[in-house]
Amino acid sequence: MKKLIPCPCGRSCGRKLLDYFWCPTVLRLSPANITEWTLPKGKFKFHFHNSAGLIYEIQECIECIDKGLTGSSKMTSEESVLLSKLAETLRAQLGVCDYAIDL
What we know:
Blueprint: E1 4-6, E2 16-18, E3 26-30, E4 33-36, H1 55-66, H2 77-94
Antiparallel strand pairs: 1-2, 3-4
């Protein structure tokens, strides 16, 4: 199990995030409901932690392109926009609104 890190909000909110929350290999819904999986091994060492997990997105893109599709039913454009709006809302609530840090 990965270590827990303090919430990045900078306040003493008591929330904890799993280390590497942006590329998890563990889904913890409750102490009794934990799912853990391993990522595929690559031929070469990856530069970023858990980058091997991107293979699932790559495989879906290849399948959609092969079928002549411009999008995936597994992750629609509408869902992507919704996630972007959610991330923007969370950043505002956490006080991380300086988008210059993303450049």
